[in-house]
Design goal:
Layout: H1 2-10, H2 13-33, H3 48-68, H4 72-76, H5 78-95, E1 97-99, E2 102-108, E3 111-113, H6 115-133, H7 141-159, H8 164-169, H9 174-179, H10 184-202, H11 205-222, H12 230-253, H13 257-267, H14 278-289, H15 301-304, H16 316-348, H17 353-377, H18 395-413
Antiparallel strand pairs: 1-2, 2-3
C-alpha cells in the first residue's frame, strides 16, 4: 500500500494537467477549425474532431501503459526502438502514401501512420542511452561523431520523403548535448551560419564578402600583438566566405521550390499576398482579427470560410487567435512555457544521467515545435509544416508527443532509483 501511495505521489501531476489542458484546447479548436453543420457533435466519428477524440483517449491509454512499465525498460530497449523507427522510415519510402508532395505516411486502412513523428522519442532515448553509458566526455571527437551519426540517420531518411520540417526538428537536440558539455562555440557557429545564410539571400555575395573581410582585417589589427588569434580569425573568415558562396547552390538545388518561395516571402523578397504569400497573409489576418477577446467559439469567419489552409493541423494557432483573441493566445502560450519550465525542472532534479539527457531532449523537441509552429503562423519563420504539440490534429503527432512526455514522467517518478 505504501509503495502504491509513493508511486502515486511521485508522478508529476502538474505536468499531466498541463498536458490534458492542451489536448482539450486542441480538440475544441479542431472542432472549430473544421466544423461541419451537418455533423455538429464534437464526438462525431465521421469528422476529424471526432477522430481526434479517439486519438486523445488512446493517447491517455498509451500514457497509462508507459507509467505502469518498469523505468529500466526504456533505457534497455532504446536501441530496439531506434532500430524499429529506422525500419519504418525506410518502409515509408517504399510503400508510403504521398500527401502534399511528401511521402511520409504508411496507410493502415483509414489511418495513416507517420514514422517521422515516432523517430523523435526513439532518437532521444538512444542519444540518452549512448551518452550515459560511455565514459567519454562530450568534447571527445568520438563522442561527438557518434552523436552526429545518431541524429543524422533519421534526419537523412526523413529528408528523402522529403519532409524538411520534421528533419529540422532533430537539430534542436544540440541543446541537450550542450547541457551535457558540448562547447558553446558550436551554438555560436550555428547562429553565425544562420545569419550568414539570411544575409547571403538579402545582400549581393561579393558585397557581403567585402564586409566580412573588412571585419576580419579590423579584428587582426585589434589583436596584432597576439599572434595566437591570427590563424583562428583567418580560418574562420575563409570558412565563412566558402559558406556564403555555397548558399546559392544549396538554396537552388537542395530546397524545393515551395520552400524557397516561403523563405522569399518571409525575407520580403517577394510581395505576393494572393499567390506565394497567401497562406501567411491569411494566417495573419485570422490571428489579428481576433482582437483582445476573440470572435467567440465557432464564430471565426476566416476559419468558417476556409481562408486559412491546413487550419486544423499546421495552422491550428490561427483558430486560437481568431476565436479566442489575444487573451486565449496568451493562455495557450503560457501553458507551453509553464510546461517547458516544468520539464527543465524535472530534468535538473534527476539523479540519473540517462533521465536528465532524455528530459532535455524532450524540452528541446517540444520547444522547437512550439516556437517554429507559432512563429510561422505570425510570419517570424518560414512555413515548414510541423504540428503544434498536443493541439494539432493527427494521431501520429499526438501519440508521439504523448510517448515522449510520459516516458519522461515515468523516469521522473523513479528518480530516487538508479537507471
Amino acid at each position: 500500500m505504501n509503495n502504491q501511495r509513493s508511486f502515486f505521489f511521485n508522478i508529476d501531476w502538474l505536468t499531466i494537467l498541463i498536458y490534458l489542458a492542451l489536448c482539450v484546447i486542441g480538440w475544441f479548436n479542431i472542432h472549430a477549425a473544421v466544423y461541419d453543420p451537418l455533423h455538429p457533435s464534437i464526438v462525431d466519428m465521421s469528422t476529424n474532431y471526432g477522430k481526434q477524440f479517439v486519438f486523445i483517449i488512446t493517447a491517455l491509454i498509451l500514457g497509462l501503459v508507459i507509467i505502469l512499465l518498469d523505468s529500466k525498460f526504456f533505457s534497455t530497449f532504446s536501441p530496439v526502438f531506434y532500430g524499429i523507427t529506422l525500419l519504418l522510415l525506410i518502409t515509408v519510402l517504399i510503400v508510403g502514401r504521398n500527401v502534399g508532395g511528401n511521402q511520409a505516411w504508411i496507410p493502415l486502412g483509414s489511418f495513416r501512420l507517420q514514422p517521422s513523428e515516432f523517430a523523435k522519442f526513439s532518437t532521444c532515448l538512444l542519444l540518452a542511452h549512448y551518452i550515459s553509458s560511455t565514459n567519454l566526455k562530450m568534447g571527445d571527437l568520438k563522442m561527438i561523431g557518434v552523436c552526429i551519426i545518431i541524429l543524422f540517420i533519421p534526419t537523412a531518411l526523413i529528408m528523402l520523403q522529403p519532409d524538411t520540417g520534421s528533419a529540422l526538428t532533430f537539430t534542436s537536440l544540440v541543446f541537450a548535448l550542450y547541457r551535457e558539455g558540448l562547447s558553446g562555440y558550436i551554438l555560436i557557429i550555428g547562429a553565425i551560419l544562420i545569419v550568414l545564410f539570411i544575409l547571403s539571400l538579402l545582400i549581393n555575395k561579393f558585397i557581403l564578402v567585402t564586409i566580412l573581410v573588412a571585419i576580419a582585417v579590423m579584428a587582426l589589427a585589434l589583436f596584432r600583438q597576439s599572434r595566437k588569434f591570427v590563424v583562428p580569425i583567418t580560418v574562420t573568415t575563409v570558412a565563412c566566405i566558402a559558406f556564403i558562396f555555397s548558399v546559392n547552390f544549396a538554396y537552388q538545388n537542395i530546397l524545393q521550390s515551395h520552400q524557397r518561395n516561403r523563405i522569399d516571402v518571409i525575407l520580403g523578397k517577394v510581395n505576393d499576398p494572393r499567390g506565394q504569400g497567401y497562406n501567411l497573409n491569411q494566417s495573419k489576418i485570422a490571428i489579428g482579427s481576433g482582437g483582445l477577446w476573440g470572435k467567440g467559439y465557432l464564430q471565426g469567419t476566416q476559419t468558417k470560410y476556409d481562408f486559412v489552409p491546413e487550419q486544423s493541423t499546421d495552422f491550428i494557432f490561427c483558430t486560437v487567435g481568431e476565436e479566442w483573441g489575444f487573451a486565449g493566445s496568451f493562455v495557450v502560450i503560457g501553458l507551453y512555457l509553464i510546461l517547458l519550465l516544468r520539464i527543465i525542472n524535472i530534468a535538473e532534479r534527476q539523479r540519473s544521467s540517462f533521465s536528465r539527457i532524455y528530459a532535455y531532449g524532450v524540452a528541446s523537441i517540444i520547444f522547437f515545435h512550439f516556437f517554429i509552429n507559432i512563429g510561422m503562423t505570425i510570419g517570424l519563420v518560414p512555413v515548414i509544416g510541423i504540428p503544434l504539440p498536443f493541439l494539432s490534429y493527427g494521431g501520429s503527432s499526438l501519440w508521439s508527443f504523448t510517448i515522449l512526455l510520459f516516458i519522461l514522467l515515468k523516469l521522473d517518478s523513479n528518480r530516487m532509483g538508479i537507471i
